Amino acid sequence: MKTTISRWRRIAFVLRLASALVSPVMFTTPAHAAEGEKSASVHMTERADWGKYFAAENVKGTIVVLDGKTQTYQAFDAARAQRRMSPASTYKIFNSLLALESGALDNEREIIPWDGKPRRVKAWNAAMDLRTAFRVSCLPCYQAVSHKIPREYAQAKLNALGYGNRTIGRAADAYWVDDSLQISAREQVDFLQRLARGTLPFSARTQDIVRQISIVEANADYVLHGKTGWFVDKKPDIGWWVGWLERDGNLTMVALNMDMGGDADGPKRARIVRSVLKDLKLI
User: Which superkingdom is the protein from (predicted)?
Assistant: First the structure.
């Protein structure tokens, strides 16, 4: 499906108008937040006891859990949970929505060509579909797709959702990894809840596809969705794990970010998340 830029400009205008009419209860952060600004506060129950899971891995970080049934937040290091930082590859969730809804990709099976340039991550050195690109977190794949998404369209969607600070920097194919766009862990769980419930300003088809490609584990008891991220432009590096769990008719959203010292810290993200979910008797 190929659509003219002029049409996207009309769509962007409509989305900006809709954004202006959104209830402030849903979006509590300003449209153009300053760099480093904290996200709007909500009450979070501090779970100091979850600190033992970070201590066991010898890392510093935060984790936020949002119970979909009670709409209550629990967090270890609630202050850090309110601080915005680059979403890094967790933005592939949002970017997948953009790609499908804009027509940059027709579906999750459309092949994204490889440009032939070898990358450090060997899994990226191939043509692949969106499902695979999401799973292996293929940065060049998403950068190629981003060139097909009109900047005005992406900006309008960021505004409509109230995604973090809603900032696209100079590079339209790198703003989620160059520290232009920032989001807090608390804002991540709010965004994920809307995706899990299918209430984002995207079509039902688009949201369903992204929910499907984000599944990392499914069994008779629960379905776990997730995406990792790793931001390397600041020291220490920042690692992310965000997602949600479907169990017994309820949704539980989770967002973790932590300081990263190197490759050995990568697996610690998922281990801490799983420890917290076990603590909550969800897995």
Answer: Bacteria
